[in-house]
Amino acid sequence: MGKCSSGQQKRIVMAMELTPDIKPNLICVDEPTSGVDSYSALLMIKCFKKLSQRHSLTIITSIHQPNLEILMLFDSLYVLAKGGLTVMRPGGFVDRNG
């Protein structure tokens, strides 16, 4: 993996984690979209969404500055702000109108 980019390394590690016959029921991923372009980030989050639905997985991830399309893919959202303020939005992000 030494000659792979950081984005490629992240994809390889995720693939290695998900290939065993026994799938985990919880996966924690720290900043999976860092170091990848916006299109790859979108594909990655869409893939996580499909995996979570298909295999009944819970995927917890941290993500910095996602675009709206990516943000709308999350089922639940916790926003951490400076000073310890935490805002939770069950069921996903607030829609554009509300």
From TrEMBL:
It is a multi-pass membrane protein. It is found in: Membrane. This is White protein. Signal peptide: none annotated. One of its GO terms (cellular component) is membrane. It comes from Medioppia subpectinata. The lineage of its organism: Eukaryota, Metazoa, Ecdysozoa, Arthropoda, Chelicerata. InterPro entries: ABCG_transporters, P-loop_NTPase. Coiled coil: none annotated.
